[in-house]
Amino acid sequence: MAVAFLSTSCRLSKRAFSAAATGTSLPKSWYNIQADLPVPLAPPLHPGELRPCTPDDFAPLFPASLIEQEVSSERYLEIPAEVREVLNLWRPTPLRRASRWEKLLGLPGNVKIFYKYEGGSPSGSHKTNTAVPQVYYNKLAGTKKITTETGAGQWGSALAWSGGQFDLPIEVYQVKVSYEQKPYRKAFIEACGAEIFPSPSTKTAVGSKALEEDPTCPGSLGIAISEAIEACVSSEDAKYALGSVLSHVLMHQTVIGQEAIEQLAGFGEYPDVVVGCTGGGSNFAGIAFPFLGEKLRSEAAKPEIRFLAVEPAACPSLTRGAYAYDFGDTAKLTPLLKAHTLGSSFMPPSVHSGGLRYHAMAPLISHLKELGTIEAQAVQQTAAFDAGSSFFRAEGILPAPEATHAIEGALQEAKAAAAAGKSRVILFNMCGHGHFDMFAWEKYAKGQIEDFVFPEEQLKEALKHVPGLNGVNFPQPP
What is the pLDDT of residue 475? Predict the structure, then answer.
């Protein structure tokens, strides 16, 4: 308890190893950035009729409460007490200054790096922040089973654990390459009482077709989503849950950024740049949206605060994708979403950051990129793992491969500031630990991590079939 009585000058020189050190509490509401957008988000379109979707169009997949959150324009939505009770098992999460890493990097004292650590959740990542409320709302609605997909396994693990909190069965389709690389994710999910299948699987028509076309298919999130949706609509009283991309999912993650605002204030700091890795966009939104909301409302302590989304060069939806209406899955079962996309048929290389191998970015993040309010950067696997390794040696947290991309983004920001002789406060989201990713870290230790650049010709081929590049838009052209 003595830490609470440190003088202000002493406290600011220390790292905050617990929420108590900065007086933080779990937020009582989620922040909805749609209330502060200068231009509204483009609506999802019905895949057959090409009209804006109505709540009824989403009813086969989601309970009404989550559909209402998806389309809400209210700035804050209250977190139910039952959800807060579960989240309180690990939230608030710590915000720390990476002072040992700063020293290892040889940074000057006016370049400071802070990180929010989400690896202390039961599943080891930020994904549990949305899994808990999604299971809760489904349970209230009378759902008997939830189906879902997962890439690296963080989302599948989070939903499986959360299903156990509310006694709701979970069925998971994991991208096959990650399923084979991370066997203990399967063990974790099954320990939670959930079922898990490698995708593509023979359990669905979509999976069987993919295997028929390519028996060695490594899988993709697009295929896994198609399988989970097929399993949902073919089961009685089942619903589907998504771990990223959709607006209500991103909103659930804003507990991260809201806590960070309060915790940084305890250090007497405010960021110049906020960094997060991006696959579908959930952890980046979680750390960035509350700060971005302050900027959009002209309330930011630093009006020029920047936001950097870092993605893998092997799956570069924000930096090389087209901004257009596209399907969210390979079988084209989902509504059309306007987002940065590489094409729903895009098959990314088998990189170790399985959670970042999605062909499209969240519509909200894509929209903000188009408005010029966020920046995007693509990095190679080797650079990301190098950054993650140096962070681990200094700070003692082995990052998930996905998180290494945010670490590399923060590292580049710090180096640029030091080279320019500028003061800079950098905040990034350390979205999960890598304890289930030792296959990848073993490859790194052996010097076997490969860099990938997706060939331009293959990218052009995948984009040929994007509906938004073939006349589909809103409003529809005359």
Answer: 82
As a whole number of angstroms, the distance between CA 169 and CA 146 comes to: 6
Beta-sheet pairing, 336-341 with 322-327? antiparallel
**pLDDT beneath 50, residues of the chain:** 1-22, 354
Q: Distance (Å, rounded) from C-alpha 352 to C-alpha 8?
A: 43
What fold, for 84-122+253-469?
Rossmann fold (3.40.50)
SS (H, E, C) 78-114: ECCHHHHHHHCCCCCCCEEECHHHHHHHCCCCCEEEE
pLDDT value of position 24: 78
For the beta sheet containing 195-199, the strands, ordered from the edge strand earlier in sequence to the opposite edge, are 195-199, 170-175, 145-150, 238-240
**Residue 30's pLDDT is what?**
98
Sequence spans of domains, the chain: 84-122+253-469
φ/ψ (deg, to 5) at 428: -130, 160
What's the CA gap between 431 and 121, in Å, rounded? 10
The predicted-structure confidence for 254-271, as pLDDT tens digits, reads as follows 999 999 999 999 999 999
CA–CA separation, 41 vs 280, rounded Å?
Answer: 17
Element containing residue 119 per DSSP (H, E): none
